[in-house]
Amino acid sequence: MKRATPKRDLPPISMFSLLLAAALLIGSLFLPWWSMKFYAPQYPEGLNIIVYPTGLAGEIEIVNGLNHYIGMAPFSEASFPEFRVIPYLVIGLALLLVVAAFVRSRKLLGGVLVLFLVGGVVGLLDMARWLRQFGTNLDPTAPIDLEPFVPPILGKNTIANFTTYSMFSWGALLLLAVIGLMAFALWNKQARTGQPRPRPAVAHPAPVKDGQAR
Amino acid sequence: MLNKVLTALLGLTSGLLVATVFFADIGKQDDGASTLQSVAEKVYVPQGQKDEYYLLSSGGHSGQLFVYGVPSMRKIRTVPVFSVDAATGYGFDKHSKEMLGGYTWGDFHHPAVSETAGDYDGEFLFANDVANNRIAAVDLTYFHTADILKLPNMGGPHAGVFVTQNTEYIALPTRFARPVSDEYAALDRYDEAYKGIVSMVQFDREERKFNLAYQIVLPPWSYDLSDAGKKVSGDWIVMTTYNTEFATSNQEINASQKDRDYLVLINWRKLADQVATGDVPEVDGVKMVDPRDVEGSIFAVPTPKSPHGVDVTPDGTRFIAAGKLAPLMTVFSFQKAFNAIEQGKFAGEEFGIPVIAYEDVLEREVDPPGALGPLHTQFDDRGNAFNTMFISSEVVKWNIDTGQVLDRKPVFYSPGHATSSEGDTVAPDGKYLIAGNKIAKDSFLSVGPSHPESADLFDISGDTMQHLVSVPVDPEPHYSQMIKADKIKTEVVYAKDENRPNSVWASKDARVERKGNEVHVYGIAMRSKYIFDAEAERPDALTVKQGDRVVFHLTNIDLDQDITHGFGIMDYDLNMEVQPGQTNTLEFVADKSGVFPIYCTNFCSALHQEMSGYLLVEPQ
Ligand SMILES: [Cu+2]
Prior knowledge:
The structure holds two protein chains of two kinds.
Chain A: H1 12-28, E1 34-40, E2 43-52, E3 55-58, H2 60-67, H3 82-103, H4 106-136, E4 155-159, E5 162-168, H5 170-187, H6 189-193
Antiparallel strand pairs in A: 1-2, 1-5, 2-3, 4-5
Helix pairs in contact in A: 1-3, 1-5, 3-4, 4-5
Chain B: H1 2-43, E1 53-58, E2 65-70, E3 75-79, H2 94-100, E4 112-116, E5 119-129, E6 134-139, E7 144-150, E8 162-163, E9 170-173, H3 190-193, E10 196-204, E11 209-218, E12 222-228, E13 236-242, H4 251-254, E14 260-267, H5 268-277, E15 282-283, E16 286-289, E17 298-304, E18 310-312, E19 318-322, E20 329-333, H6 334-343, E21 348-350, E22 353-355, H7 358-361, E23 362-366, E24 374-379, E25 384-389, E26 394-399, E27 405-410, E28 415-420, E29 432-437, E30 453-459, E31 466-473, E32 480-484, E33 511-515, E34 518-526, E35 529-531, E36 541-545, E37 549-556, E38 565-569, E39 574-578, E40 583-589, E41 594-599, E42 612-618
């Protein structure tokens, strides 16, 4: 039999999985995705740069104030056009997930997953580009001369009297969970065999921490 | 044989003696060492840890507030209140200069933390200036002086400041009687032309402003100290008097002739009600109420010679006068006083004030043998009182209900006030007591003839007092407030308020506006530069003409804890500080021509030395 619409070849359990993925994706808009913590003898409590998909939080002004000594350009939300785009991309992807959930097409979902992964890789590359840009384009007239450096996306680094720790945050974990849920929707046993089982499956919820929203 | 026996006995005895002395001594040394160690541990607060209490101590004729941590007795800060302070620019910047009102010093005796339901609420601290008749409020969120009010008609509010249970009023009775309205009257007319005034001040916490609600006119006695009642006595104020002799010279002799002076009881609520009716005369715009016109609002109780402190017990049932020249503490009962008043049982009148007989109010006299010069009473949470003895240089602990003396400990030397932990509230903690001493003498490394004063810290949580430490303090400790640290909630950075007048928050917005011979700078201070004019070729140089009025508004845009910037102008005798997030203003006339370096006076950063600029004054 032939249909104009894509083939409905994913089981109902995949639908639940995808709806949950869409919800988590929307949820990630309110959580930080990445952060960098700065420690120095004078800052035992640490200074933070916290990156949300929608903007920056943490002690940005203080970090900027200190960074001007090494000639680093100041961070601000205005300097990252990404913040104006990412929320729409996230909402768009979430809508696609909802559509995929109801259409239950393996092909459509596969497309969404590829799109998602591409977006992720582009995002990481973009971050790496920014970090390189901030760390290497230091103002030569700055009072403190520092060798250009590239802060890592993940892990520890030392700059002058500061030790920094870069890490992914709750929002990024949610994104990972979204990928996991999409993979589950595509490749769970019922989807692979095309044999729906009577036992309703419960999708495993990804960890969501309270109070992370800005 | 006998010889042998004697020798043996002698040997045995001396052996025993040596052993006893030797071992007893060892035991004692061990004991002493471990006691010293445990005492040391009680006052040692390691780096990074904080003290349990704030001690907010009057700085006497330094005019400033001293802040210590208890039990370490580390001095944390001097907060300028009544006197100019170069280190913080207090009295230089526009706001504090206006607040000081042209005075350069004050004599701060008695701090009082604002109270709610008779307990410290930790929001504000009030201070009296005995020298120049002022009252100040220190905002304990910022530890900055928020307001100062000049009180007319007063002769030094020594007997203040004491707050009523909910800080409805802050009472300040006068020390010297004077003619009101700054009038002249010869000392021969003391009896009729001189008045003793009590100022009743209100404080608006939202507006952070004082209001002189009314003044009470009293006979020209000297009012020494006072306290506000609590609970059952909450509507009352008690005050000690001296010089009821009306001596106008050589008070040392002439004001010490009578065996009894008076305690004065005033019902402030009745007076406030009277003032509210509006039927009260005004003197120079101040409502002035004569309590003799308000039935039941004033009574006098004779009390042993020249009393100093009077303190109301935590439960509010009694008030205790410390005799100073009569070496005893007298416990009076409010209930007995109320009964006498109700029955109209008076021993007579003085100046039209009903006098209640001493015996009719007395509960007991407490006279520890040889304890001389009692000045002040503090309390713990177990019904005990503590008195400082100026002359016999000790603290005496005794039970209020029984009068039994429980402990006496020497202090080094000659204590004035004592302050116990939350000891003048309805709920004292009974943990620590400080004696603020007037004489340090040989206690510390010598610094020549000008000595520090001293303070002794006691642990009063046990049956007997344990002396923990003596510390030198700057002149001069009078009364203090010891408040649990968690009751004070500070802000360490001023919040960024973009609507604040004269504030600038971005370097690009820094600008100079010139109006005739006025030059207004709206600038910023940040690590490690000043920007007065973002457009200028040299943003940190200001050029004006000789004779211009220059107004620097500086905002510290480093919103980071403890990044204070200073702002000193060389040879102009000017300096101020700007706290993180604060906008501060310095106003002056550039009357000297020349080139005047400007620099950051408060070490702020690795490039602090470079944080500078120029004031260029073109000759006329
Ligand atoms: Cu500075």
